[in-house]
Amino acid sequence: MSATLRIAFGSIVVGIVVLALKVLAWWMTGSVALLSDALESTVNVATAVAALIAIRVAAKPADKDHPYGHHKAEFFSAVLEGVMIIVAALLIMREAWNGFQNPRLLDAPVSGLLINILASVINGCWCWVLINRGKRLRSPALVADGHHLLTDVISSIGVVIGVALAVISGWAVLDPALAALVAVNILWSGWKVTASSLSGLMDEAVSEDTLGEIRATISDSAEGAIEAHDLRTRHAGPKTFIDFHLVVDGATTVDAAHQICDRIEQALKTRLPEAMITIHVEPPHKAKHSGVLVI
Length: 295
Prior knowledge:
It is a single chain. The chain has 8 helices and 4 strands; from the N terminus they run H-H-H-H-H-H-H-E-E-H-E-E. The chain is α+β, with helices and mostly antiparallel strands. The protein has 2 domains: 3-201, Alpha-lytic protease prodomain-like (Up-down Bundle), CATH 1.20.1510.10; 208-293, Alpha-Beta Plaits, CATH 3.30.70. Helix 8 links the parallel strand 2 (239-248) and strand 3 (275-282). It is elongated and about 85 Å long.
């Protein structure tokens, strides 16, 4: 089992544990705000399962029907996660509205809050693992899951503070008001996750920093060529797709041109191990005197 799959499976286990703790906290207190926290954790479990499935599909090698691989499956998972986050927010809004209409004082607030704090600590540690390892493994599904959990942690902290204030002040209406604020925060999180994932599905180019590294690598390793132009990039999960035209001298043999291409590919894969590279060799009259000039 790959590291990405192990982490994705771990997210399911952690999600179930955190969900159980938050449901217990809500059952002990009857707090609408704590119920909203538990509803978001329900989404956490569902999206963790979706991420695991997507990562397994994305790991499949290229085949006849998918010659470029299955890497975009992770983006579909991240989009699904964003949609489910938004659905959870709407459910919380409904519970908050019901709480506004029938505010009530909480039962066993201290015990319930302590249990919720424990769940938040577990979530906080795991979201750190997801974001850091997800970036290292270049997994959009893990990173999206981590950012979602981070939002959950932040909203949980707000819930704990708000419920404590409701208990201390005796203002029962603070409980549903806080649930409504949690819902707004979750809506914003869902929009960000969905927007970032859609950019991957739309073949968004690599970042400017990564593009600069690619250009510099081509320039440094293309000795024997004249220039490289029409450089294009896109990313899909852990894969980075790079293609460009390489202009060589007219006297360059096919074998020599092939060696230059091999040297460039090796240098690029040293920087980006998962890169998929396509180079189109052209004669001197195709030069555009722009793009990447060879040092």
